[in-house]
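Following up on my earlier thread - several people asked me to post the actual chain instead of describing it. Fair enough. Here it is, all 321 residues.
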Amino acid sequence: MRKNEILDWSELKVAGRPVALLGNGVSIAIDEQFHYQKLLEHPSPRVSGVEWIPFWSLIRRFGPNPERILEVLRTTSDVAATLNLNCCYGVPLVTLAHHIKTVVPERIRSVHPRGTEIQGQLAALGEQLKGFSSVFTTNYDLTAYWAINSFQGDFDDGFRTEGRFKPEEMNEVRTHLWYLHGGFHLRRERWRTSKKTTPPMGNLLDADDIAEAVVVLEGTAEEKLAAINANHYLSTALGQLQGSKEAIVVLGHSLSKPDKHICEAIDRTPKPIYVSVLRDSEGGHDQQVIENASHHLPKHQNIGLQFFWHDTHPLFQALTT
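Reply from S.P.:
Thanks for posting it. Predicted structure:
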């Protein structure tokens, strides 16, 4: 096989029960509203018009990815502090960054489909995920959380009575599910701790305490890693990925610079890595994910790293039929 050759999934002959890493591409396959462009098309009702002006200007200049915008703001803030300039359109840069971190979860909630609207896709997702030994996701929407509801005997997320996190009690036979960047169903508790909240399907989107959700939204991998290390659940989840020795299937994830900490966790232990590549309607493909994987997984660059067309994997096929 040629280096960086893209194969069909069936050609890879993956044995056993590998690990899965889910990215935003999986959520987009369920509902197009999870595209960053969709999330940021309209102002949030909780952000005033004056505060939205610089935010929208940043989107037009740097694109709709909030992580990219936060990274730009971080650099700008450092320069502005040196020059004693700390405002944009009269809005302090620190305040603007805070609003972006508030707006993005709010926008996800506002466009997030109700569980009852995507029951077919959720059932298909759960059916596919139970075939993995562990599932790691950087998505903090509710799709994976809802998907396992009908497969309780097949999954274990480590949460027990009253939503308490008890990783030492996890069932080794079941598929373990880890939210690397948190999720809307997780809530901050005491220092460094989290709990899972379990209202009926759909109600989480209306919860008044959504601002207390454990969500990692930072501009750089270093900042994300600091946020992860400050939370017991998140640091445990990342530790599980770091220690994983099974083959890993990367589904709908860009493996880009803001997620370098995820790549470093994967790259720590030698193993087969299979990365999905998006194929567009004109026969082209996402070259960037190949470059990202090759660059951010240096230990696997020449051995163990393979690519496959995303639409040949059973998970994406099940979500789009």
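The chain is about 40% helix and 15% strand. That should answer part of your original question.
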